[in-house]
Amino acid sequence: MEISCVDKGVSTDACLNWTEVQYDLTDRVRRATELDESLQRYAKDGPDDQFSWDNGLLRRNGRVCIPSVGKLREELMYEAHFAKYSVHPGSTKMYRDMKKLFWWPGLKKDVARYVAECNTCALVKAECQKPGGFLKSLPITEWKFDDISMDFVHGLPRSQRGHDSIWVIVDRLKKVAHFLPNRRDDPVETLAKLYMEQVVRLHGVPRSIVSDRDGRFTSNDWRLVHQMLGTKLAFSTAFHPQTDGQTERTNRTMEDMLRMCALDFGKRWEDYIFLVEFAYNNSYQASIAQDRQAKYYNAKHRNVEFAVGDWVYLKVKPFKGVSRIRHLKKLSPRYLGPFEVVERIGEAAYRLALSADLGGLHDVFHISVLRKAVNDPAQVVENDRVPVEYGLTTRVRPIRIEDRAKKQLRNKVIGMVKVRWDNCGRE
């Protein structure tokens, strides 16, 4: 069982821990082999040219046969997966490394199970399978402006009237849209007045409104307004834009048209927003049937289902560009959790039992951002001590100034300070 570092393909320093482990296991394997009846049966019934005895160790084609007595197999897999010279290899790589030295019945299956149960791998490694969840289309509306969808477009340059956002409202049947300039900090009362003037006055009270979970759409005042009007509010699941994808697609078309107007007529976008709305509503809408949409969507997705009581990880890729969990964005885990599934909502959404630091998030998520956890629920990793707010964002505040310096330029001197921030993992 004495394997050199050259055989392992690593340096002498990196192989030091492995050398200590293999010498410690030699005697244990020799004694355990005498007690493992199944291994003895393999050696007795197998071909003579495959099994051989070497100094009390049973070998198969030169590889040491590891008995199932004790935790020898688990210890070897732990060393091959968690050692500093291993760095959490995948199941294929780990199996190919281990089969050079060891053998036991079901080695490949045990390695695959061990890697699947590794919590660190589940949080960090990308999933190379198709996203889960088939398309569940919204019911087809029967009359124009009976069912509408709405969304905000933020980040526009402030106009002369002080507007920096556009409220996009789309009829789900005719694809007619209204582009309403507003301010990002407008209260619900202002939005309700604008809604009554531009939508209800022209088209009547809609039956339902589909939107994302913007803070103004989920506020009690907005809910109260539509409760009195008799309109049903339907919100998308957390971080799943496919629900109101029609509005998102309209937003992109409207933004492209505004950019072209800005290039041709100048930067005053609000002076041309009514022209963009007129051009959009009088153009051909190449919408197709929902069954064809589902056909193309489902071809790139797979059917996945979870049961109440299962444990799942929450994907954080949709939060790209946002300070999510840790201060090192590039090296942050791809998943959070695991969390327990407490309820199934519809056919493609699940309610999760989120931890206390994620209490500000909506607890219903689409199946496409969930990944099944097969490890022990007792291995749940806490999401640091950083307070995570709505949208999986965290606020970073300065603690103290640690150093000062001056940078000499050609014509002036710039003062510089070194600031210690909280949530950096060093306090």
UniProtKB/TrEMBL annotation:
PROSITE patterns with a match to the protein in the record: INTEGRASE
GO biological process, one term: DNA integration
Listed name of the protein: Integrase catalytic domain-containing protein
Pfam families according to UniProt: Integrase_H2C2, SH3_Tf2-1
Highest taxon of the lineage: Eukaryota
Annotated InterPro entries: Integrase_cat-core (IPR001584), Integrase_H2C2 (IPR041588), RNaseH-like_sf (IPR012337), RNaseH_sf (IPR036397), SH3_Tf2-1 (IPR056924)
Domain Integrase catalytic per the UniProt entry, residue ranges: 135-301
Any one GO molecular function term: nucleic acid binding
Gene3D superfamilies per record: 1.10.340.70, Ribonuclease H-like superfamily/Ribonuclease H
